[in-house]
Design goal:
It is a single chain. The chain is mostly beta strands. The chain has 7 domains: 119 residues; 61 residues, no CATH class; 117 residues, no CATH class; 73 residues; 46 residues, no CATH class; 67 residues, Wheat Germ Agglutinin (Isolectin 2), domain 1 (2-Layer Sandwich); 87 residues, Immunoglobulin-like. The strands form 15 sheets. The protein has a 5-stranded antiparallel β-sheet with strand order 15-16-17-18-19, with no helix packed on it. Strands 24, 25, 26, 27 and 28 form a 5-stranded antiparallel β-sheet that branches. The protein is globular, with a radius of gyration of 33 Å. Keywords: Glycoprotein, Membrane, Repeat, Signal, Transmembrane, Transmembrane helix. This is SORC1 protein. One of its GO terms (cellular component) is membrane.
Length: 651
């Protein structure tokens, strides 16, 4: 199916084709479309946002529309994508109330009436703060001049996100929610052009510091861009640009931010001359901007289907520079790098990275491009047009087996757009067979256990010129024995110079046991937590994993006595039910003595259930002083209530 939108200045209509564009049918709209959001799984389900801030839904690929809600915040509406596929037709949105407040609302795409809506977050939220990503929902609420951030994991009730106590955030961006963990960039009160990276536990509540002072910049639309790049195809691998004493340097991690290291510069330049560059004084630095425009490549590129290859622009030296930019490639996932061009190029991946295509970034017209069949080691020049072309963009065809690219541009400043289709199929005379591949082990400077597993991928041998077709993926993965390197410091703990995780100055480890009562258990942290989605087994796992512990007993405190009806009057000869409440301590494991004030007293040991209350019948009228004493081996507490008992009048 194909959908075309008409120019809103002429009319508001959709043109829809069900036969790949052979014929179109026109559907008039009674609103002007500002943006469309297609459902990730159901191709006929669409949300449309109008220019007057209304949200419409369609289950018929735009042939009919239903008004869902008015006053919706721009770009703050989402499809529900739960990992378990529950409620695929649920829509999340942030809407403005009549008096100008913002609220988080969920409703079904076919019915969003007042009765069927739900408001998962009690009360109002800050404008423009709703984010729904994977299994997580985030909102922000400013009180007392400070923003507070709340998270809901798998639609559970919202909890306040906990950063270290000393952190005073003024801005936060959710960077990734992959693999049941939140990666967030937080700007502290004293930061202007940098953010700190924090990583959470599975629920997204407790955050620990992963990297300080990551460079940030303003995008064209005022949006914040953070210099962090998630490498495609290898879980847990990120590149980040960190500011140290006004110099920006590029760091790499293979274990989701537990350890970071500088990039080793190439040993030689393009001409084979040696590069003298010693770590840590000199290293390779990369630009990590990803392009907003789908037709031009950004400064860095990697693909799920070519897990070890990263192409990026950057420079060798003490810091990242905006001048003197060259192109670099790695084909062993960032361990070693090679320089491939002295000027900026756009690089496209074709045939699972089996072919790399490079085209120069220039305002002048060009007629050549460069091809590499050996992961960027050698490049050959091809001409793709007889007339030089001003290139506006390049597009690789989608799909697994893409060997076609489209270059579009114009021959002169006055000419129409030209599309040049380049098909590389003729270069290959056969498909790859098993013997054309070799195993390649992922490693980090020789360390093969990454994220708790040894992973071996298959790569095409560099001298073979065959077409790969479908992606084979990693060949094998086997778990490693857990070592200290597989564990991060837990919330409230910091790594000291000897490598141990010890409680931070602001954290009291016994605070966890304060919130629980006798007979229950809590998780007593060892100071370590396993890196989420790390697959290691045995080894030190047992020693570093938090242990469930019995909650300590406490002296009774904050005892209250009240009647079940909440009244201080009762009738003679009728049952009165007294309820006991205790703020601290445990009623079920205490001695309870009750004096009803009419000469009768009872005592209970190990009272099994106080929920039903303690019942008593008064035979006489009057005002009675009811006293309760609760005690255990650690202390006692008492409470008093005056009850007025009246008689029934018989007419």
């Amino acid at each position: 199916q194909i959908m075309l939108l008409t120019d809103p200045e002429v009319e508001s209509s959709l043109l829809i084709s069900s036969d790949e564009g052979a014929t179109y049918q026109k559907y008039r709209l009674n609103f002007y479309i500002h943006s469309l959001l297609f459902h990730p799984k159901q191709e006929d389900w669409i949300l449309a946002y109008s220019q007057d801030q209304k949200l419409f839904s369609s289950v018929e690929f735009g042939r009919r529309w239903l008004l869902l809600h008015e006053g919706v915040t721009p770009n703050r509406f989402y499809w529900s994508m739960m990992g378990n596929g529950r409620d695929p037709d649920l829509v999340h949105l942030e809407a403005r109330t009549v008096d100008g407040h913002a609220q988080y609302i969920t409703c079904k795409m076919q019915n969003c009436s007042e009765a069927t809506r739900s408001k998962p977050f009690p009360g109002y939220i800050d404008h423009n703060s709703l984010i729904v990503q994977g299994d997580y929902v985030f909102v922000q609420l400013t009180s007392g001049g400070r923003p507070h951030y709340y998270v809901s994991y798998r639609r559970s009730p919202f909890a306040q996100m906990k950063l270290p106590k000393y952190s005073l955030p003024k801005d936060m961006h959710v960077i990734s929610t992959d693999e049941n963990q939140v990666f967030a960039a937080v700007q502290e009160w004293n930061q202007n052009d940098t953010y700190n990276l924090y990583i959470s536990d599975t629920r997204g509540v407790y955050f620990t510091l992963a990297l300080e002072n990551v460079k940030s910049s303003q995008g064209l639309e005022g949006n914040v861009m953070i210099d962090l790049y998630e490498v495609a195809g290898i879980k847990g691998m990120f590149l980040a640009n960190k500011k140290i004493d006004n110099q920006v340097k590029t760091f790499i991690t293979y274990n989701k931010g537990r350890d970071w290291s500088l990039l080793q510069a190439p040993h030689t330049d393009l001409r084979g001359n040696p590069i003298h560059c010693l770590l840590p004084y000199c290293s390779l630095h990369l630009h990590l901007k990803v392009s907003d425009n789908p037709y031009t490549s950004g400064n860095i590129a990697s693909r799920d289907t070519a897990p070890s290859i990263i192409v990026a622009s950057g420079n060798v030296g003490t810091e990242l520079s905006d001048s003197d930019i060259s192109m670099f490639v790695t084909s062993d996932a960032g361990n070693t790098w090679r320089q491939i061009f002295e000027e900026e190029h756009s690089v496209l991946y074709l045939d699972q990275g089996g072919v790399l295509v490079a085209m120069k970034h220039t305002s002048l017209p060009i007629r050549h491009l460069w091809l590499s069949f050996d992961e960027g080691r050698s490049w050959s020049k091809y001409s793709f047009t007889s007339l030089p072309l001003f290139v506006d963009g390049v597009l690789g065809e989608p799909g697994e087996e893409t060997l076609i690219m489209t270059v579009f541009g114009h021959f002169s400043h006055r000419s129409e757009w030209q599309l040049v289709k380049v098909d590389y199929k003729s270069i290959f005379d056969r498909r790859c067979a098993e013997e054309d591949y070799r195993p390649w082990q992922l490693h980090s400077q020789g360390e093969a256990c990454i994220m708790g597993a040894k992973r071996i991928y298959r790569k095409r041998k560099s001298e073979k010129k065959c077409m790969q077709g479908k992606y084979a993926g990693a060949m094998t993965s086997e778990p490693c024995v857990c070592t200290e390197a597989d564990f991060d410091c837990d919330y409230g703990y910091e790594r000291h110079s000897n490598g141990q995780c010890l409680p931070a100055f602001w954290y009291n480890p016994s605070s966890l046991s304060k919130d629980c009562s006798l007979g229950q258990s809590y998780l007593n942290s060892t100071g370590y937590r396993k890196v989420v989605s790390n697959n290691c087994t045995d080894g030190v796992r047992e020693r570093y994993t938090a242990k469930p512990q019995q909650c300590p007993g406490k002296a009774p405190q904050g005892l209250r006595i009240l009647t079940a009806e909440g009244r201080l009057t009762a009738q003679q000869g009728h049952n009165v039910t007294f309820l006991l409440q205790l703020e601290e301590g445990d009623l079920q494991r205490s001695l309870i003595q009750v004096d009803f004030g009419d000469g009768i007293a009872v005592s209970y040991a190990n009272l099994s259930s106080t929920e039903d209350g303690i019942k008593h019948i008064y035979q006489n009228v009057g005002i009675f002083r009811v006293t309760v004493l609760v005690e255990n081996s650690l202390g006692s507490d008492s409470a008093v209530l005056y009850l007025h008992v009246t008689c029934m009048y018989v007419h």
